[in-house]
Write a structure and sequence with these properties.
Distance between the termini: 60 Å
Number of domains: 3
GO biological process, one term: signal transduction
Domain Methyl-accepting transducer: 239-383
Protein name: Methyl-accepting chemotaxis protein
Number of strands: 11
Strand content: 15-25%
CATH class of the largest domain: Mainly Alpha
Keywords: Transducer
CATH architecture of the largest domain: Orthogonal Bundle
Radius of gyration: 55 Å
CATH topology of the largest domain: Helix Hairpins
Number of helices: 8
Largest sheet: 6 strands, mixed
Length: 383
Amino acid sequence: MIKFSALDSCKFLAETLGHLVPGGIMFCVTEGDTVVWRFSSDSFHLDSFEVGNHVESNGVMMNAVRNKKTVSQNVPRTVYGQRLIIVAMPIIDDTDNVFGAFSVFLPKLHPVAAAFKDFAPVLAEMFDEGSVIYMTDLTQVVYRQASQKFDISSLPVGHAILEEDVAARTIKTKKPISKEGGAEIYGFPVLETNYPLFDEDNPDEIVASLGVIIPKKTAAHLRIISGNLEDGLSAISAAIEELAAEATSIHSNEQNLNNNIKEIIGLSEEINKVSVFIKEIADETKMLGLNAAIEAARAGESGRGFGVVAEEIRKLSEQSKSTVPRIQELTDTIKAKVNDAGDMSKSSLHASQEQAAATEQVTASIEEITAMCGELNEMAKTL
């Protein structure tokens, strides 16, 4: 109990220390059921206890007066919109009669809220790209801490929780929720994770939420790089597949060319055989012409016409015989050229085979790199 004579000292002490209490504090003096004095720190006040207002007859202050002893009570959020601890001490006059109460109102802070100013500055700087740590009650943001690298000006203390906010969904579902978004606002995505905080005495009652927002610039950049790389590799792969198809076609054409060259060589050899046959016919014809000339000479004047024919046969034989070397020479030249072409065709055929094999190997490597790009993209999503 507090003596009336000490009341002014209590008021002075309350006004002196009130602004030093973390989370805020409020003091009230009631006479009977009427508030006659009130002091509250800047961060905390209750409109229900303005000077001149009446307190409830079954409330903490009237219970302290009736029972003539100090009464402490935990007040749920449903009464004043936030959880409170109210301590009411009876005030007695010089005759020890109780005529009022000196009451202390303390917001009941969740342990996370009580420690927020200690851990949040450290935690916010532990992310490579920075972060914003915030805490809400059931209606608004009550604490926030931004890192030096990253901040969100649109999320100040006092920001009302909107229905689409992650915190609102966490409070509604009572479950942790993570959501990636924000590229339309910040130009890059952010990851926001929010956790429910429950009443220490009632584990089923959610009283607040704790959120962390971290930028994902690196992850977004990795996604762009992997996407561009994947697109580029896909284009290269398509081009190489087309090249491989052309190389296969070239290989097939080279095989056909090589076969045709072999046939030409065979035909050249047949021409040589024909040339040999022509030479043999020319030799036989020459011999027949010579024999005919001898017989014409024996016949005298009557065989002169036959001699002229025999002479022409010999001339024709000589001409046929003289063309045979030329035919053989041309045939040999053709054969040599064809052999050279055949060698080049074989070399080209071998090169096309190696090109096709190398193309297949490059295609396989690009497919492997493309798969790695896909894995890189998936990894970027987890950052």
